[in-house]
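Tokens help. Consider this.
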Amino acid sequence: MADFSEFRREWRPLAGAFIGMGSALSLNSYILSIFAPYLIKDLGWTMSQWSSLGTVQMLIMFCTPVAGRLADLFGVRRVAAVGAISFPLSLLAIAMMSGSIQTYLAIYVVQIVICSTTTATVYSRVVAGAYSVRRGLALGIAGSSPPLIAALFSPLISTFVEGHGWRAGYLVVAGFSAICAVITLLLLPAQQAEVAPVVAEKAGTRPRGVYGAIFANPVFWIMLAAIFLVNLPFTLATTQLKLVVLAQGLPAATAALLVSVFAVSSIVGRVLSGAALDYLPSHIIAAISFGLPVVGLLLLASPFDSVLVVTLAMALIGTSFGAEGDIIPYLITRQFGIRIYSTVLGLLSAAMGLAMGGGNILLALTGSFDLYLPIAAGTAFVGSLMFLALGLPSLKRHAVEAID
């Protein structure tokens, strides 16, 4: 019989990470789409001014590695507290600001820099450290928090903003985030056993020594390259999802429905892949999961544009997109251990962000989905195969050395 006793013993760190991840910076990507039309109309901003947010969002690539290193040095609760408390304050600042786009961008910059400490790079560490037998499933549950909370919360806040205005809406979201921050910090352990005080660090664990050891490990570079390649197609999940569906010749109403299919598939993929990681070799699960978009992208590139075909394509890409949220953290625990877990995850998360930005550039260079889709399928195929290399005996030895 499967042993799920860990969930009874370690429910507090899992619940804390779940609530924390879904109520801070990760929530931004969902609420921005709700508030954007009202901000633009009420404050007189242009679409060009609003699009400048995309440049600011690139900051996350530089902030997550720093947040990850801090979590390894000082512990999840201490580091997450900074962002968890700051996020609702930043929302209050937006609710009270004038109509200047520069003011909004300044708040947004501060929000990303400080609240990057509330991302999965930090919170998933406490889950990975608390669970061993059911680590994959636990990471999958924790990682499903942002899309699940957004799915439940977005319709409510959207209706509220429609009736009471965007300023009142930001106050409500700020109150929600503040309550969640308090609950999160009460649930998280004060100090993890794997985190030693900074003053007790040995020379080999100082930042320069840690990064030197990470960069000297071939496992890191294989994972970095593979993650970059499989994430190039995931630009569809951030900015182009509805557009690529419309490009199949389907009506707008169907396109909106298929966006929901993608979102649900990402949640299902996160939980299913997490459960599979507890029973099957992680490099096999990674190769299969990241290979799913290859089929989906080729279906979109094909002349078959029926609703059934496009729905299958969206489901395959969405499942893979969701699976990444627990596969990469799980692989890090197997290859590098817990002591430098968030440091490595922060670096690899930066590669994910860089790849998604690269995907946008690739789409701009190709000029249409017709060429972009088969190229993206090719990069995903190569990247998924690279994960199989993690099962080689020589690389397994490197993983054991990293953990030791």
Notes: Confidence is low (pLDDT under 50) at residues 193-205.
